[in-house]
């Protein structure tokens, strides 16, 4: 056995070129696998750290825990660690502009709480004693109270008390307004030492009535340090944030149910979205949760990121993609490395025959091949692993550079030992499967067959017939080239397959990137503004004052401000076409009521719109947009097609009776959604059902049509396919001026929006946000700004980021393929050196010899491209069909640039490899080459 190992090592040294090429293939395969698992590990680690920062480093939060019960959590073997907070109470904030959040909620914690809670400092430091406090940033941005680091504040801290229910109100319950007061207040003076981001949902509910202020607790610090016992503090309640062990995470529902004292199976079923609970089970579960020992909050995102098995939906897609990519890498690498071993077997076939003839067993010959694979792996795998880690580090830096400004978190580089071990195991498996087939083939060869070396070529004379045109055009060199390719199909099939894989991958990914950027362009093609603003306010907004604000900011080239109101019209005068369309949607009902959306524009925008639409005397009524595009089902093609149609028979001077609802308190309808710009109907026709119409107090108003057009105002974003009417403020107010027909109350809850064409959208957004934040006149208005330029840049950056990974994958797969091609062609040329020397010895000139090699390059390239290019076009077309959407139909256009580039690179690559090999053979001595039995 030692002799076989010695022979194997000597063969590797003698065939340095093939050894190096094979090692390079192993390095590339291992590097790609290592980079893949490191990137997945880095992404998972980054998501975990991001969630810890935003939501806190805990798995389950237990509220209303008595101090005497704290030891139950500390000693629970399923809990890895805990930190605690203590609710000190609420204090009224003078001057707070948010009517639903009038309090400061003061909580205390210790070093562990500051470290593991989601208290992210912006300025200053954390509190170090009970006289210091940290305040949240949204106290200023949302509550409009400006407190700076270093200021001293006095708070009257007490309990929230509901006079209606005569009970204490807990911290996360929404503000009850007149129903609640503060009781048992204690005055406390603090020094503000830091400003932090708003705590996550697990620490401050979005509906919470108080802004979270955090101070230090000497008592909690003493308990954590073991210098004080919690036994005698039974009346003090805490909130315990627990972090489970990895084993407990796999059974998190059972562990949590046991702690809070509820039925384990019911609790687990309630947290499993794929299992539906019966009505009886739901009632039982609700009753159990009402009587549970503690209230809980589950940090589900952190659990899903940390709990690898079972795989949660959050990472299922990521791991699936990684598994598919790993499979592609392994298959490609096995093909490449297997080819190297096949060439090695072909070179040493006589050697194996002679060894077999002197007594070497099949097992020893197999072992020789596997030993060769192991030696190559010992060199290639460590180098490949380190290269993969380095490549992943570079990619992480590239990702962070490309995603700066739009990705919510920075990708952190992280190596995982289990992940790297997995990559090494996959690499070993790749080498093993590559060598196994070759080892069996070497062991099966008999001594006689090996010495004769005739098994490699088995052909019939009919298969070697050469087309006459090849001989006429290229002469004897062309005939020999053609016959050689026919004769050595297996070797050249490997080269062709490698080229096909690389060509198809490059064409498909190039098309995907091109299509992705086209889709982004299509998505924003119809948008003629770059700043969109939605506003919400419980009171009416003066759109003229708002217009002055928007137009007064430097860089505003055009703008539009509108207040939108929904109305419904009973049995409007449909056109025949639109009436049939609505009838199809609603089972041929004739009593369909239609939703109309009246937008009140600022005067300047309305006058410009009326002029563009050709409507005179527009102040006398409303302008109706009477054309719209719908997705209509075509029965012949069984597809939805876009169809533009006129909607109504109305003309200038006609009147439309519009209905609306008035609630008891129209200005405080809690059903309004902040920033919502979508129609409340479920389809795109604007249908309003009777239940909606009859909800609330029914009112009507008559709207006169001043003109009909198919245009919408410049910058207007629109509200789906709702029927649109536009008016100015004066005309809209005149609808209620006479108080007739019971229309004395206007509809509440207008949808306010504005659109701006800015020279520089980023600068405009910064200025707008600064002015609205600092101006108390806008303190009651919530602004939601959409920077369309930034959104488009972000989407393009996302696809660029995907492109980095995609083209990186192409490069590595191409490198694996190229090493395979180099290995096959260069070794093939060397193995044929005796053939070439014989041809030259009988009179073949250097020109004929060069022509023959060039023709082989052409034949190989053409065959690979004839398969690869059409296959790439086909797959890219199928990708286009899969990605097509009804609203953005993508017309397929082959990626011509990628195809041309692919053709040129393939031809140049094959020719360059064969040219280099041919140059080396020219310098060989003809007689010595013919005399050589092997390399």
Name a few traits of the molecule.
alpha+beta; ten-stranded mixed sheet; 50% helix; transmembrane transporter activity; transmembrane helix
What do you see in this structure?
Helix content is 50%, strand content 19%. The longest helix has 44 residues, at 788-831. It starts with a helix and ends with a helix. The protein is of the alpha+beta class and 935 residues long. Strand 6 and strand 7 form a beta hairpin. It contains 29 helices and 23 strands. Its main location: membrane. This is ABC transporter permease. Residues 19-216 form the MacB-like periplasmic core domain. The chain crosses the membrane at residues 20-43, 317-337, 373-396, 416-435, 496-525, 798-822, 864-884, 896-914.
- How much helical structure, as a percent, in the residues? 40-55%
Distance between the termini: 24 Å
The overall average pLDDT, rounded, is 79
The helix tally amounts to: 29
Brief summary of the model shown:
Helix content is 50%, strand content 19%. It is of the alpha+beta class.
Give a topology summary.
Elements: H1 2-14, H2 16-55, E1 60-66, H3 70-74, E2 79-92, E3 103-109, H4 111-116, E4 121-124, E5 132-136, H5 138-141, E6 152-162, E7 167-169, E8 180-196, E9 210-216, H6 218-225, E10 237-244, H7 246-249, H8 252-260, H9 264-270, H10 279-290, E11 295-298, H11 300-306, H12 313-347, H13 349-357, H14 362-403, H15 417-444, H16 447-452, H17 468-487, H18 489-525, E12 531-536, H19 543-552, E13 556-570, H20 576-585, E14 593-601, H21 603-613, E15 622-625, E16 627-634, E17 639-646, E18 655-662, E19 687-688, H22 690-693, E20 697-709, E21 723-728, H23 729-734, E22 751-758, H24 761-774, E23 782-787, H25 788-831, H26 833-841, H27 846-883, H28 896-922, H29 926-931
Helix pairs in contact: 1-14, 2-11, 2-12, 2-14, 2-15, 2-25, 8-9, 12-13, 12-15, 12-25, 14-15, 14-25, 17-27, 18-25, 18-27, 18-28, 25-28, 27-28
GO molecular function, one term: transmembrane transporter activity
Main location: membrane
Organism: Agathobacter rectalis
């Amino acid at each position: 056995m030692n002799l076989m190992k010695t022979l194997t090592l000597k063969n590797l040294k003698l065939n340095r070129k093939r050894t190096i090429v094979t090692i390079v293939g192993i390095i590339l395969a291992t590097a790609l696998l290592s980079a893949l698992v490191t990137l997945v590990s880095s992404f998972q680690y980054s998501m975990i750290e991001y969630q810890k920062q935003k939501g806190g480093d805990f798995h389950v939060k237990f509220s209303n825990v008595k101090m005497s019960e704290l030891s139950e959590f500390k000693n629970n073997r399923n809990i890895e660690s805990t930190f605690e907070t203590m609710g000190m109470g609420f204090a009224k904030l003078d001057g707070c502009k948010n009517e639903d959040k009038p309090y400061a909620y003061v909580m205390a914690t210790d070093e562990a709480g500051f470290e593991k809670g989601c208290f992210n400092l912006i300025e200053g430091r954390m509190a170090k004693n009970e006289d210091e406090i940290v305040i949240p940033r949204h106290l200023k941005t949302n509550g409009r109270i400006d407190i700076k680091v270093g200021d001293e504040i006095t708070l009257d801290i007490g309990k929230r008390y509901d006079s209606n229910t005569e009970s204490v109100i807990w911290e996360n319950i929404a503000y009850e307004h007149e129903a609640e007061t503060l009781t048992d207040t204690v005055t406390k003076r603090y020094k503000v030492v830091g400003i932090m981001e708003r705590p996550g949902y697990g620490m401050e509910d979005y509906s919470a009535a108080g802004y979270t202020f955090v101070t230090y607790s000497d008592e909690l610090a003493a308990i954590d340090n073991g210098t004080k016992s919690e036994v005698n503090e039974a009346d003090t309640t805490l909130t315990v944030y627990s972090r489970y062990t990895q084993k407990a995470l796999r059974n998190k529902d059972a562990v949590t149910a046991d702690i809070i004292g509820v039925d384990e199976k019911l609790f687990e079923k309630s947290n499993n979205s794929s299992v539906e609970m019966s009505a009886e089970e739901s009632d039982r579960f609700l009753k159990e949760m009402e009587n549970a020992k503690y209230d809980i909050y589950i940090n589900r995102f952190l659990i899903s990121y940390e709990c690898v098995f079972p795989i949660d939906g959050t990472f299922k897609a990521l791991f699936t993609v990684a598994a598919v990519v790993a499979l592609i890498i392994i298959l490609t690498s096995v093909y490449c490395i297997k080819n190297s071993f096949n060439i090695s077997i072909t070179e040493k076939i006589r050697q194996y025959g002679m060894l077999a003839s002197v007594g070497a067993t099949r097992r020893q010959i197999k072992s020789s091949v596997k030993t060769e694979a192991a030696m190559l792996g010992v060199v290639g795998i460590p180098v490949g692993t380190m290269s993969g880690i380095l490549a992943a580090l570079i990619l992480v830096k590239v990702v962070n550079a490309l995603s700066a400004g739009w990705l919510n978190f920075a990708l952190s580089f992280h190596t995982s030992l289990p992940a790297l071990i997995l990559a090494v195991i996959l690499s070993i498996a790749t080498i093993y499967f590559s060598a196994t087939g070759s080892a069996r083939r070497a062991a099966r060869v008999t001594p006689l067959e090996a010495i004769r070396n005739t098994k490699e070529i088995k052909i019939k004379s009919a298969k070697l017939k050469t087309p006459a045109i090849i001989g006429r055009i290229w002469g004897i060199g062309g005939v020999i080239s053609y016959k050689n390719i026919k004769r050595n199909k297996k070797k050249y099939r490997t080269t062709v397959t490698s080229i096909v894989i690389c060509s198809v991958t490059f064409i498909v990914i190039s098309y995907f990137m091109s299509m992705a950027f086209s889709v982004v362009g299509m998505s924003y093609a119809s948008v003629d503004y770059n700043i969109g603003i939605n506003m919400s306010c419980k009171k009416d907004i003066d759109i003229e004052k708002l217009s002055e604000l928007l137009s007064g900011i430097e860089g505003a080239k055009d703008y539009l401000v509108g207040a939108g109101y929904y109305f419904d019209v009973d049995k409007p005068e449909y056109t025949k076409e639109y009436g049939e369309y609505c009838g199809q949607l609603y089972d041929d009902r004739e009593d369909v009521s239609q939703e109309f959306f009246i937008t009140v524009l600022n005067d300047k925008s309305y006058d410009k719109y009326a002029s563009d639409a050709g409507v005179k005397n527009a102040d006398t009524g409303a302008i109706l947009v009477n054309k719209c595009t719908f997705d209509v089902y075509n029965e012949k093609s069984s597809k939805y097609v876009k169809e533009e149609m006129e909607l109504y028979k109305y003309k200038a001077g006609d009147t439309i009776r519009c209905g609306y609802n008035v609630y008891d308190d129209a200005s405080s309808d809690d059903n309004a959604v902040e920033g919502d710009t979508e129609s409340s109907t479920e389809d795109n026709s604007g249908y309003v059902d009777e239940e909606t119409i009859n909800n609330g107090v029914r009112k009507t108003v008559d709207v006169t049509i001043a003109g009909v057009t198919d245009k919408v105002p410049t910058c207007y974003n629109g509200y789906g396919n709702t029927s649109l009417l536009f008016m100015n403020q004066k005309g809209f107010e005149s609808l209620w001026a006479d108080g007739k027909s019971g229309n004395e109350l206007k509809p509440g809850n207008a949808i306010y929006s504005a659109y701006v064409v800015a020279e520089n959208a980023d600068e405009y957004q910064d200025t707008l946000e600064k002015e609205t934040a600092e101006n108390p006149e806008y303190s009651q208005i919530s602004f939601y700004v959409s920077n369309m330029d930034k959104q488009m840049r972000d989407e393009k950056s996302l696809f660029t980021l995907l492109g980095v990974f995609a083209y990186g994958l192409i490069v590595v797969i191409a490198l694996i393929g190229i090493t395979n091609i180099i290995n096959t062609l260069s070794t093939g040329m060397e193995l044929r050196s005796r053939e070439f020397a014989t041809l030259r010895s009988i009179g073949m000139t250097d020109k004929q010899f060069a022509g023959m090699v060039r023709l082989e390059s052409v034949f190989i390239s053409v065959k690979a491209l004839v398969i690869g290019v059409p296959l790439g076009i086909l797959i890219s077309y199928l990708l286009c069909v899969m990605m097509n959407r009804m609203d953005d139909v993508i017309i397929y256009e082959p990626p011509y640039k990628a195809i041309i580039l692919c053709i040129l690179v393939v031809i140049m690559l094959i020719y360059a490899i064969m040219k280099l090999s041919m140059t080396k053979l020219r310098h060989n001595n003809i007689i010595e080459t013919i005399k050589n039995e092997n390399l």
